[in-house]
Every structure is written in structure tokens, then in C-alpha cells.
Amino acid sequence: MPTREPAAAELAHDLRETLGRLVRRMRAEPGPPVSRLTVLGRLDREGPASISDLAAAERMRQQSMAQTVRDLEADGLVSRRPDPDDRRRAFVELTAGGGDLLRATRAQRESWLTAALERELDAGERALLVDAIALLGRLADS
């Protein structure tokens, strides 16, 4: 008997719920709070940014981002430097300690995921996941 093709709305619902569970499970691994890790990750990927640029990118209020940056700065994970073109503005950048924490946290979470992939999926299922990742990438870029 052929399998029924799910409606796009049903597929969207199932995908959202499943990805949400996977993300929450990975976030359950030890590490800094998500809001801090998100800022560190963005600075690592995109380089120095102003607090207003970080807030806009993360869809946060500027005041909330300023507090997150203050906390990261107090822990030595980011530093600020004046904008050479506008002394009223500062750039936030990742410190060596922030980069180290970010890499360690990513490695720990990827280690959990690697073990889960090896434990829960056989070789054929992992190959199927390779194709699914390409499709998810297309959706993410749309």
C-alpha cells in the first residue's frame, strides 16, 4: 500500500515540533545560557558588532542585549572597543576566553549528537539524514 503524502501544513507542524524538541534537547547539555551563547556565536560568525546591531539580529530589545553584553563582558567573554568613525558607538567583540567557551560548548553538544546518531540511527538512516539536512538548509535559506 503506498504511503500517503502529508499536506504541507501537517508537515510544517511536525517539522516545527520535532526540530524544537531536538534544539531543546541539545540546549539541555551543560553550557552557558542560550541568550549568551547566541551572542557569542554571532560574534564568532560575523565579527564585531554594536549592541544595537546584535539586538536587531536577535530580535531583542536593545536594553536586554546591553545587559547580556554587560554580563558577558564581566565574565571576560567579550570586550568593547570604540568605533573609530563614531566615538559614541562601541563594537563588541569576542575575546579568546569567549571563543574558547564557545568552541567547548559546541564540541560538547556535537559530542552528544554524534553519540545519539551512532546509537539511534543505522548507516542507511544516517545517509537519509544527509539528504534531509540539504533540504532543511534550503528551507532555512528561503
TrEMBL record:
Lineage: Bacteria, Bacillati, Actinomycetota, Thermoleophilia, Solirubrobacterales
Organism listed in the record: Capillimicrobium parvum
Protein name: HTH-type transcriptional regulator
Record-annotated HTH marR-type domain positions: 8-138
Molecular-function GO terms, alphabetical: DNA-binding transcription factor activity
Domain of life: Bacteria
PANTHER family: CONSERVED PROTEIN, HTH-TYPE TRANSCRIPTIONAL REGULATOR RV0880
Pfam families on file: MarR
SMART domains: HTH_MARR
